[in-house]
Model the fold of this input.
Amino acid sequence: MARRLLVAMIQLLVIAAVAKKVRIPDHLDDVVDDEEDEEWKMWGKKAVSKPVFDPPPDFTGMTPDQIQAEMMKRHIGPAMGFVKLRLDVPRSKEELPELAKKWSRLLRTGGIGARVTAVDLNTLMFTLDSGKETTELKDFFLRQPEAYEVKIGQQAFRRPGDPPLEVVIEKRKLAKERKQEPNDEL
Done:
Protein backbone atom coordinates (compact mmCIF):
# COMPACT_ATOMS: atom_id res chain seq x y z
CA MET A 1 0.00 0.00 0.00
CA ALA A 2 2.79 2.38 0.93
CA ARG A 3 4.63 1.41 -2.22
CA ARG A 4 1.63 2.32 -4.41
CA LEU A 5 1.29 5.64 -2.66
CA LEU A 6 5.00 6.34 -3.19
CA VAL A 7 4.75 5.46 -6.89
CA ALA A 8 1.69 7.71 -7.32
CA MET A 9 3.47 10.65 -5.66
CA ILE A 10 6.56 10.17 -7.84
CA GLN A 11 4.38 10.13 -10.95
CA LEU A 12 2.72 13.40 -9.88
CA LEU A 13 6.10 15.01 -9.29
CA VAL A 14 7.35 13.89 -12.71
CA ILE A 15 4.19 15.23 -14.40
CA ALA A 16 4.51 18.55 -12.55
CA ALA A 17 8.20 18.84 -13.52
CA VAL A 18 7.50 18.00 -17.15
CA ALA A 19 4.54 20.36 -17.42
CA LYS A 20 5.39 23.64 -19.03
CA LYS A 21 5.43 26.46 -16.54
CA VAL A 22 3.45 29.50 -17.60
CA ARG A 23 5.10 32.77 -16.77
CA ILE A 24 3.05 35.95 -16.83
CA PRO A 25 5.19 38.99 -17.48
CA ASP A 26 4.79 42.18 -15.45
CA HIS A 27 4.81 44.39 -18.55
CA LEU A 28 1.26 44.07 -20.03
CA ASP A 29 0.86 47.41 -21.86
CA ASP A 30 0.60 45.74 -25.28
CA VAL A 31 -2.03 43.16 -24.19
CA VAL A 32 -5.61 43.82 -25.38
CA ASP A 33 -8.37 42.41 -23.17
CA ASP A 34 -11.38 42.14 -25.47
CA GLU A 35 -13.07 39.19 -23.79
CA GLU A 36 -15.48 41.31 -21.76
CA ASP A 37 -18.51 42.43 -23.70
CA GLU A 38 -21.04 45.05 -22.60
CA GLU A 39 -23.32 42.46 -21.03
CA TRP A 40 -20.45 41.20 -18.86
CA LYS A 41 -19.60 44.73 -17.72
CA MET A 42 -23.23 45.41 -16.74
CA TRP A 43 -23.65 42.15 -14.80
CA GLY A 44 -24.60 42.77 -11.17
CA LYS A 45 -25.47 46.42 -11.69
CA LYS A 46 -29.01 47.69 -11.33
CA ALA A 47 -30.71 48.29 -14.63
CA VAL A 48 -30.96 51.99 -15.30
CA SER A 49 -33.69 52.84 -17.71
CA LYS A 50 -33.47 56.13 -19.48
CA PRO A 51 -36.77 57.97 -19.24
CA VAL A 52 -38.38 58.16 -22.63
CA PHE A 53 -39.61 61.64 -23.44
CA ASP A 54 -43.34 61.32 -23.71
CA PRO A 55 -44.77 64.73 -24.52
CA PRO A 56 -48.18 65.42 -23.02
CA PRO A 57 -51.11 65.33 -25.41
CA ASP A 58 -53.10 68.36 -26.45
CA PHE A 59 -55.49 69.02 -23.56
CA THR A 60 -57.89 71.15 -25.59
CA GLY A 61 -61.19 69.39 -25.94
CA MET A 62 -60.53 67.01 -23.04
CA THR A 63 -62.75 66.72 -20.00
CA PRO A 64 -61.19 67.25 -16.56
CA ASP A 65 -61.38 63.50 -15.90
CA GLN A 66 -59.48 62.75 -19.13
CA ILE A 67 -56.85 65.37 -18.26
CA GLN A 68 -56.41 63.88 -14.79
CA ALA A 69 -56.10 60.37 -16.27
CA GLU A 70 -53.36 61.61 -18.63
CA MET A 71 -51.55 63.30 -15.77
CA MET A 72 -51.71 60.12 -13.65
CA LYS A 73 -49.93 58.21 -16.45
CA ARG A 74 -46.96 60.55 -16.03
CA HIS A 75 -46.95 60.64 -12.21
CA ILE A 76 -43.51 59.61 -10.96
CA GLY A 77 -43.27 60.36 -7.22
CA PRO A 78 -44.98 58.66 -4.30
CA ALA A 79 -48.76 58.37 -4.23
CA MET A 80 -51.37 57.82 -1.54
CA GLY A 81 -55.02 56.83 -1.61
CA PHE A 82 -57.86 55.02 0.07
CA VAL A 83 -59.81 51.84 -0.54
CA LYS A 84 -63.41 51.82 0.60
CA LEU A 85 -64.57 48.32 1.49
CA ARG A 86 -68.00 46.88 0.76
CA LEU A 87 -70.49 48.17 3.30
CA ASP A 88 -72.74 45.10 3.33
CA VAL A 89 -70.02 42.85 4.78
CA PRO A 90 -69.69 42.90 8.59
CA ARG A 91 -66.08 42.90 9.80
CA SER A 92 -64.28 43.07 13.08
CA LYS A 93 -61.36 45.29 14.09
CA GLU A 94 -59.09 42.24 14.03
CA GLU A 95 -59.89 41.38 10.40
CA LEU A 96 -58.83 44.72 8.94
CA PRO A 97 -55.12 44.63 9.83
CA GLU A 98 -55.01 41.04 8.53
CA LEU A 99 -56.60 42.12 5.25
CA ALA A 100 -54.16 45.05 4.97
CA LYS A 101 -51.20 42.74 5.64
CA LYS A 102 -52.47 40.21 3.09
CA TRP A 103 -52.88 42.85 0.38
CA SER A 104 -49.46 44.39 1.16
CA ARG A 105 -47.80 40.99 0.79
CA LEU A 106 -49.65 40.21 -2.44
CA LEU A 107 -48.64 43.56 -3.90
CA ARG A 108 -45.02 43.07 -2.87
CA THR A 109 -45.07 39.61 -4.46
CA GLY A 110 -46.29 41.26 -7.67
CA GLY A 111 -43.45 43.78 -7.57
CA ILE A 112 -45.50 46.77 -6.47
CA GLY A 113 -43.99 48.69 -3.55
CA ALA A 114 -47.18 49.63 -1.70
CA ARG A 115 -48.07 49.55 1.99
CA VAL A 116 -51.67 49.11 3.10
CA THR A 117 -52.93 50.05 6.58
CA ALA A 118 -56.36 50.01 8.20
CA VAL A 119 -58.00 53.37 8.93
CA ASP A 120 -61.47 52.37 10.11
CA LEU A 121 -63.90 49.47 9.68
CA ASN A 122 -64.65 50.38 6.05
CA THR A 123 -61.46 52.11 4.88
CA LEU A 124 -57.90 51.09 4.14
CA MET A 125 -55.16 53.57 3.28
CA PHE A 126 -52.30 52.79 0.90
CA THR A 127 -49.03 54.51 0.13
CA LEU A 128 -47.18 53.79 -3.07
CA ASP A 129 -43.46 54.41 -3.56
CA SER A 130 -43.65 54.90 -7.32
CA GLY A 131 -46.62 56.69 -8.82
CA LYS A 132 -46.00 54.88 -12.11
CA GLU A 133 -47.70 51.84 -10.60
CA THR A 134 -51.02 53.51 -9.75
CA THR A 135 -52.86 51.81 -12.62
CA GLU A 136 -51.70 48.34 -11.57
CA LEU A 137 -52.53 49.12 -7.95
CA LYS A 138 -56.01 50.35 -8.82
CA ASP A 139 -56.66 47.24 -10.93
CA PHE A 140 -55.42 44.99 -8.12
CA PHE A 141 -57.77 46.57 -5.55
CA LEU A 142 -60.79 46.45 -7.85
CA ARG A 143 -60.19 42.72 -8.43
CA GLN A 144 -60.47 42.06 -4.70
CA PRO A 145 -63.98 41.03 -3.58
CA GLU A 146 -63.75 43.10 -0.37
CA ALA A 147 -63.04 46.41 -2.16
CA TYR A 148 -65.79 48.70 -3.41
CA GLU A 149 -64.05 51.94 -4.39
CA VAL A 150 -60.46 53.14 -4.81
CA LYS A 151 -59.67 56.83 -4.38
CA ILE A 152 -56.39 58.22 -5.68
CA GLY A 153 -56.23 61.97 -5.26
CA GLN A 154 -59.64 63.40 -6.15
CA GLN A 155 -60.48 60.58 -8.54
CA ALA A 156 -62.62 57.61 -7.46
CA PHE A 157 -62.56 54.28 -9.30
CA ARG A 158 -65.23 51.58 -9.09
CA ARG A 159 -66.13 48.44 -10.99
CA PRO A 160 -68.28 49.10 -14.07
CA GLY A 161 -71.93 49.39 -13.12
CA ASP A 162 -71.35 50.13 -9.42
CA PRO A 163 -73.02 53.33 -8.22
CA PRO A 164 -70.96 55.97 -6.39
CA LEU A 165 -70.32 55.24 -2.72
CA GLU A 166 -72.40 58.25 -1.64
CA VAL A 167 -75.47 56.78 -3.40
CA VAL A 168 -74.97 53.42 -1.65
CA ILE A 169 -74.65 55.14 1.75
CA GLU A 170 -77.80 57.18 1.11
CA LYS A 171 -79.76 54.05 0.10
CA ARG A 172 -78.61 52.25 3.27
CA LYS A 173 -79.65 55.26 5.37
CA LEU A 174 -83.11 55.36 3.78
CA ALA A 175 -83.59 51.62 4.27
CA LYS A 176 -82.58 51.94 7.92
CA GLU A 177 -85.03 54.82 8.45
CA ARG A 178 -87.87 52.82 6.89
CA LYS A 179 -87.23 49.97 9.31
CA GLN A 180 -87.32 52.32 12.30
CA GLU A 181 -90.57 54.11 11.35
CA PRO A 182 -93.52 52.89 13.44
CA ASN A 183 -96.55 51.61 11.55
CA ASP A 184 -99.49 54.03 11.86
CA GLU A 185 -101.85 51.65 10.10
CA LEU A 186 -104.84 50.22 11.96
